[in-house]
Amino acid sequence: MSEIPDFAYGEVKALDVKERSIHELLLAMNDISFQGRALGEAYRILIDMFNDPENTIFLGLAGSMSTAGMWKIIKWLVEERYVDVVVSTGAIISEDIYEAMGFKYYKVHPCIDDAMLLERKYDRFYDTVANELDYRKMEGLIREFVETLPEGVYSTPEFLYEFGKFLNEKGIDSIVAAAYRAKVPVFSPALVDSGYGMGLLLAYRSGKHIVLDMVKDFYQLVEIGRHSKKVSAIYIGGGVPKDYVNLMTVAQTLIAEYEEGRHDYYKGFEYIVQFTTDMPQWGGLSGATLEEAVSWGKVSPHAKKRTVHVDATIALPIIAHGLLVGRVKRKNPQNVLEVVVKKH
User: Fold this and answer.
1) Among 66, 89, 223, 342, fewest CB within 10 Å belongs to which?
2) How much is the pTM?
């Protein structure tokens, strides 16, 4: 039998068919090839990430995950405290509320007549539609909440903490309601690019002036990073949430350089996995490799890291069920909410 060459890190093992759990299957996929191996290796990194007791874990969310039926998985990850901080697009944390309010998304063919949908007031998300009038009710609920707030300046986690409390009291069990209960701060750097924007706009036009301070937002995110012994990240997609969390590590470097006089200081991610369908050759951050991030100091040179080029609607259910069946628990969740909502 030949020995493993010194430039290889293991041997490929053909995957046989037998009765086993999804957890055992994911572990076995470490030894196959292509994106199957990537998924297995990402799963193994997640287990290590969750077992590290001094680790603050950031979850970055992009894409149309809630309309695609993924929001309850995200809510479960928050409730089970696999993550300590959520950074999301506004769409993901509003379009889950639509379904939590009792409205439905419907399956359609992606080549359906969109002019007919416009006439019948249905909005399309590739192969899924939502009733426009029900969608407006969800935006109206956001407006109703905004009008209960004292006027003033809020960071998005402060705003979403209050909204989570509001939804929880109404029995609307959404991602931000779960985050409120679990004391997990939720940031949304492009919050108004969603149903929140419509709700805030309608409230603004009626005289309720709520200001979202994005510098305060970023300050709070960076302070969480600075108070953490280690930082790690899970990215579903890319976009603004990925860049926002990445910039947190760069900001800590700048603060160390200019305020504390520490040179060549980096506090990159120790564990990081990314599930994306984007590719690096187009130059966008959503497809940028985790290896590239090392050059910025965003990811530690010795980090455990893996990108999986896969649709998140495939990866998330498999990963979540693997964690459940394998009884993988978070060893020591970090409580960082007080950095954000001290006044509450």
Assistant:
1) 342
2) 0.97
